[in-house]
Structure to design on (92 residues):
């Protein structure tokens, strides 16, 4: 596993357990033992999901412009985030 703290923001992550096992996310913030993750669909940048760090596999691949996505216009940012995740999962 590729473990980092605040430096993990912007990296792709895959849920390892729970009802969302196998689901792709992007880490949008880190706090304590948790990451806040979004997928641009049901978990938007404005309403991220809190996930325990142990329940995520953090990859070595990052979204190129995470700062712009987090600060950008909500609808287009979430659509772009969902597209990044779809491309990431398709490349596996």
């Amino acid at each position: 596993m590729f473990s980092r703290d605040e430096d993990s923001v912007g990296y792709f992550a895959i849920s390892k357990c729970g009802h969302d096992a196998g689901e792709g996310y992007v880490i949008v913030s880190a706090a304590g033992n948790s990451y806040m993750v979004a997928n641009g669909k049901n978990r938007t940048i404005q309403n991220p999901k809190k996930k325990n760090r142990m329940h995520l596999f953090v990859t070595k691949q990052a979204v190129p412009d995470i700062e712009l996505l987090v600060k950008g216009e909500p609808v287009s940012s979430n659509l772009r985030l969902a597209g990044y995740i779809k491309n990431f999962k398709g490349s596996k």
Summary: The radius of gyration is 12 Å. The beta strands are 11-15, 24-31, 34-38, 49-52, 56-62. The domain at 6-90 is CATH 2.30.30.30 (SH3 type barrels.). Residues 74-90 form the longest helix (17 residues).
